[in-house]
Write a structure and sequence with these properties.
Layout: H1 24-27, H2 30-33, E1 39-40, H3 52-62, H4 75-89, E2 98-101, H5 104-115, E3 121-126, H6 130-138, E4 142-150, E5 155-157, H7 159-167, E6 173-177, H8 189-201, E7 205-209, E8 235-239, E9 253-257, H9 260-273, H10 280-292, H11 294-319, E10 333-337, H12 345-356, E11 358-359, E12 361-362, E13 373-377, H13 382-401
Parallel strand pairs: 1-11, 3-4, 3-6, 6-7, 7-8
Antiparallel strand pairs: 2-9, 4-5, 8-9, 10-13, 12-13
Helix pairs in contact: 3-10, 4-10, 5-9, 7-8, 11-13, 12-13
The structure holds pyridoxal-5'-phosphate.
Family: Belongs to the class-II pyridoxal-phosphate-dependent aminotransferase family. MalY/PatB cystathionine beta-lyase subfamily.
Keywords: Lyase, Pyridoxal phosphate
GO molecular function, one term: pyridoxal phosphate binding
Length: 402
Amino acid sequence: MIEKGDDYMHNFNASIDRRHTNSIKYEGMDFMYDTTDMMPFWIADMDLATPQPILDALRQRLEHPILGYTTWKNDAFYEPVKHWYKTRFNTRVINNDLMYSPTVLYTITEAIRALTREGEGVLVNIPSYNAFLTLIEANRRVVVPSPFVFDGDDYKMDFDAFESLCQRADMKVFLLCNPHNPTGKVFTAEELDEMVDICRAHDVFIIADEIHMDFVRNEQGHQSLINWMKPDSKILVTTCLGKTFNISGIPHAFYVTKNRFMKMELTRQMMAAGVGNPSVLALSAIEAGYMHGADWVDAVNDFILQNMRFVEAYVKTYLNDVLTVHVPDATFLLWIDFSKSGYSEDDVQHALQKVGKVALGIGSTYTVEDSTHFRLNVACDHARLEEGMKRIRTAFDWLKER
Ligand SMILES: Cc1ncc(COP(=O)(O)O)c(C=O)c1O
């Protein structure tokens, strides 16, 4: 376990035991796989320690013994967020457009409910972050898929097909994920231009989930849709620090929009649901992370890229006949293709779970059809990742020998 005062700043290869911390990744695995007897590489949190400035700020806040209702409508919230956007993305955010919210998925849910009626469609790229698909269906809306086309190097949108879908009278919302989970795609400024033009022309509201924005490693960097907002334009961006600093166990989020209807509706809805007050610990984490966490984020991205390159090399050496790995420009997730193996997803998942004893994101939960992929979370120490790769190899060796 972590000792108080340990500096995990750049020691990403420290092996941290997460047992007995109620971690979903470890202790909640049976929810997805009916067993906890596996090495987990599935859910998108990191096995890396949260950076020291945040841990220190949380400890310091707990020195004060009262943890009562808390307000976000002050500079302790606005200033760190504006600072981060300015210094990391050269993006200007103003207080009036910035609102706190309990979680990213809550924001998306309420935005969809405000913009659509039951039975109506919500447009999403496919593959899609699996919670988008379940959230749309749980709210009795319909998933309208806009499939990516993989050109061997990047996942591309078919903008003609996308525009046809936007022209439908019942099409009011496009739920964008940029950077994209699970593929790791980073949308270019040109792609965002085209997307925004099409949506504007056909009166489609863009809800942009940018939760993976701090893991963009290409030259262009993260292009936030905030830069495309005009007064009252139909765009909302939502994100949080959960992925960035591995603090998803402290629920919090925020959103940025210039759309008056959406500001009003989401504020009203948060009041109606009684969830308008932030977590006092989240506010301390936001301030510490956004004011003092930049170096750590740069270092963690270097580490993630090394891990991705390790997986790529491992697959080339041992699994090249069955797997294709594409190292993406963003996220800590690899979307690995097993189509050339010829095995079905059922066979592959059976071998991974029962023979390799390794839990990976199940591809078909990210699509509306069959899948030939699984998702591997590489944000862990090297020894653990190497053991995970050995287990994947064992699983495929077993399939080949069957
Ligand atoms: C794209 C995306 N959006 C949202 C979430 C969850 O965010 P929150 O916990 O704030 O609802 C995740 C978590 O994996 C994610 O990958």
